[in-house]
Every structure is written in C-alpha cells, then in structure tokens.
Specification:
The protein is of the alpha/beta class and 267 residues long. The protein has 2 domains: 156 residues, Rossmann fold (3-Layer(aba) Sandwich); 94 residues, ProC C-terminal domain-like fold, CATH 1.10.3730.10. It has 11 helices and 8 strands. It has an 8-stranded mixed β-sheet, sandwiched between helices.
C-alpha cells in the first residue's frame, strides 16, 4: 500500500520505521511530507524522490495518510493539504484531542481514524487505542489495526470519547511510570546505593513486576497482598502512601490529563 506520512517527529518517524521493519510498506511505497532537514535526516532510507516540503498532487497516490503533527498546528495545515486528498483515502490521525468530526470537516474526507499511541511504540512495545468513522468497512478497519500493531498492541473502541480517556491513561502513562521510577531511584540513593545501583534495582523491579503480572490471572491487588505481609516493610510503605493519599493524587492527575485532552480538541 502507498503510505503518506505528514510530519516526521518522534511518532511519525516511529511509524515509518515500524511499517518498513514489518514489511507493511516498502521505501518506494512510503512518502513523507515534512518541514525541516532535521526531519529528513531521521529517515535517510526514504528516497529523495519521495520526500516533499510542500503539499501537492503527489498526495493523491496515497492509500493511507498518516497525520503526525502537533494538534495545535492542524488548523493551519488542514486547508493546505485538503485540496490534494480524495474520498477513497483513509486518513489516520495520531494528534491528541482532534476529533473524528473535526478531521472530516477540515479535510473533507469521510474515512478517518483517530489513534492514541504512546512512547513505547518506538521499540514495538506500544499501546494504541483507536476509533474510526463508520465509513470504513471491515477490511479497511482490519488493515488499520494491522498497521497500528506494527508498533505494539492496539485496542479498537467504538466510543470515540474513550480516545481522550486513553490519552490520560496509556498515552501519558509512560511518563507516570518514569515519575514513580525516578522517585524510587532517588530514595535508593538516599538509602546508600550509588545512582547506577539504584537505577538497576528499580529498572529490574519494574520489568519483573510487569512480567509477573502478565503471566498469571491475579489482580494487582492480589499481587500487592502477596508482597505485603502483615506488619512488614511493604505494609509500612503502604501506610505512608495512604497517609499522603497517593492513590487519589494519581487518579486526580489522570483526570487532569483527560481534561487537557478535551481542551486541545476544542482548540
């Protein structure tokens, strides 16, 4: 299939590399529409003949158009690319907050998909939640899911509102994990380890914990109980977490991310 990627930032580059690595598309079937030389240098394998700096008739050959620009740049970009799109194309947006209806109206195309990937997509371990307009048939939906799966796992939702929820949970989620890891590393240093030692302890603890959770049917609460014996060290930590109301703070943070996703969409 002919793939056009608009914007070669982190996520645009991730999709280009994943699609090529999985043989979903070849370099001759992939076209880039970019703004800077820095973006060009991220994907040197794409032939110069397939790299453009301005919208044009070359866009009409694409079967799938991946829009990977900042959501705040979309309003200015839409009227520029709109004349070169046609109804048979599928437009896949990975812009946070930009609704399916906004995509359809701004680009004048019926087949639109809205997806929310996350940073681990860069190493094929991503989580992407997506929704689409009813104009896509089952075959086209299957193709899009296969495309998204080149970067990890994907989840289709009929209710588009869940995309904003996914933005708060899995989209921003890796940063929450790094936030917690960083705090644990700092605590490890305060408790006497070198920074390198503390980082090793925390990294392996996170990896092992996730793999363990994936390999059995126990809930997170059940696994917590297996570690936290009554009157033990883990219970002492939980007492502090509860005193600080850490759980509620995390939940409030995710709600804040959700509200921001809605604000971006409204803009």
């Amino acid at each position: 299939m002919n793939i056009l990627i608009i914007g070669a930032g982190n996520m645009g580059t991730t999709y280009a590399r994943s699609l090529l690595a999985s043989h979903f598309a070849t370099t001759s079937e992939m076209t880039l529409l970019i703004r800077s030389q820095a973006s060009r240098e991220r994907l040197p394998e794409i032939p110069d003949a397939n790299v453009f700096r301005q919208a044009g008739t070359f866009m009409e050959a694409a079967d799938i158009v991946i829009v990977s620009v900042k959501p705040q740049d979309f309003a200015a970009m839409a009227p520029v690319i709109r004349p070169f799109l046609h109804p048979s194309q599928i437009v896949l947006s990975i812009m946070a907050g930009v609704s399916l209806q906004t995509l359809k109206e701004a680009l004048a195309v019926p087949k639109v998909v809205r997806a929310m990937p996350n940073l681990p997509s860069q190493i094929g371990m991503g989580m992407t939640v997506f929704s689409c307009s009813p104009d896509l048939d089952r075959k086209e939906l299957f193709i899009i899911q296969n495309l998204l799966n080149t970067t990890g796992k994907s989840l289709y939702v009929e209710n588009e509102k869940l995309i904003d929820s996914a933005t708060a949970v899995s989209g921003s989620g890796p940063a929450y994990v790094y936030y917690f890891m960083n705090a644990m590393i700092q605590a490890g240093v305060e408790l006497g380890f070198t920074p390198a030692q503390a980082e090793l302890l925390v990294n392996q603890t996170f990896m092992g914990s996730v793999h363990l959770q994936n390999r059995n049917n126990l809930s997170c609460e059940d696994l917590m109980k297996r570690v936290a014996s009554k009157g033990g060290t883990t219970e002492a930590a939980f007492q502090v977490f509860n005193q600080k109301d850490l759980g509620s703070g995390i939940m409030e943070g995710l709600h804040g991310a959700y509200r921001r996703s809605l604000e971006l969409g409204n803009k």
